[in-house]
Amino acid sequence: MHPFAYTRASGTREALDAGRRGGRYIAGGTTLVDLMRETVERPGNLVDISGLPLREVSVTERGGLRVGALVTMAQTAAHPKVRTLYPVISQALELSASAQLRNMATIGGNIMQRTRCTYFRDVTADCNKRDPGSGCAALHGFNRTHAVLGTTDSCVATHPSDVAVAFAALEATVHLLGPDGKRGVPFADFLLRPGNTPHREHAIRQGELITAVEIPALPRPLRSGYLKVRDRQSYEFALTSAAVALHMRGGVIREARVAAGGVGTVPWKLPAVERHLVGERPSDALWTAAAEKAAEGARPLENNRFKVELLKRTVERQLRVVGGTK
Ligand code: SF4
């Protein structure tokens, strides 16, 4: 591990000052410390923000939910409002990592976690994300777990977060605080597709801090849930996953929110699937036809062609689980 300085911020202003001077924020540290041990990350100055007052879950005036950036994964998953209003979030969190990690890792850190691409974590391998311009060892290497959507010749890595898939489906907003004040970034714009600059992963500006993730109020009743498909049943990342939320009234789907994980370079929203569902009545035929649209635009690699069919089946299964069949 490379030498680094450590400061514990006693307040938001102190944290922002340190961030503006190039300090790197750390809270649970469950990803960053791993990457520092492997020398993939070499921050010179760590700013511990775990003492900041960002640990609240609250219902917004409009009936949405605001989750503070430092609320842990376990606290978020267990919160009665999250469980009641958005079970898809609780389920995504409880299917992530281990109990120990969920007790340490925060919501802000979770959406900022970096890819599990093995070449990214091997400092001897070519990797445009870690070392811009060096190439992408995964492109023609072992790429079974890599992305089939949103890829470029520069990078084919997936984003590893489960709860980010739920946030993408629900069209959450990431709230930031920085030297220029507060701003909210729609989740769809927060995590960046690789393009030819895969080292740029998010929309955060120098010195900005995530303060909360806000989930908008959606029409009630809202049924939702998360399905994760992986090689083993615990402590494993998704090969494919699906976050589904449906508002139904009078036996008709009025609103649909659907996103997939494990297949995209960012959590992958599925607007074509959503459009196919709205205005229709639940049926097996509807779920199958809608899920067929989930893999539109997929570009599989040599070792991950199976993901195209698996994605469609994952979405179909979760539509049926959430929407039922009449
Ligand atoms: Fe690096 Fe992305 Fe290629 Fe993996 S897929 S080696 S993270 S550039």
From TrEMBL:
Pfam families given in the database record: CO_deh_flav_C (PF03450), FAD_binding_5 (PF00941)
FAD-binding PCMH-type domain segment(s): 1-220
Family matches, as PROSITE patterns: FAD_PCMH
SMART domains: CO_deh_flav_C
This protein's UniProt keywords: Oxidoreductase
GO molecular function: FAD binding; oxidoreductase activity
UniProt xrefs under InterPro entries: CO_DH_flav_C, CO_DH_flav_C_dom_sf, Diverse_Substr_Oxidored, FAD-bd_PCMH, FAD-bd_PCMH-like_sf, FAD-bd_PCMH_sub1, FAD-bd_PCMH_sub2, Mopterin_DH_FAD-bd
Protein name in UniProt: Xanthine dehydrogenase family protein subunit M
Species, as recorded: Streptomyces phyllanthi
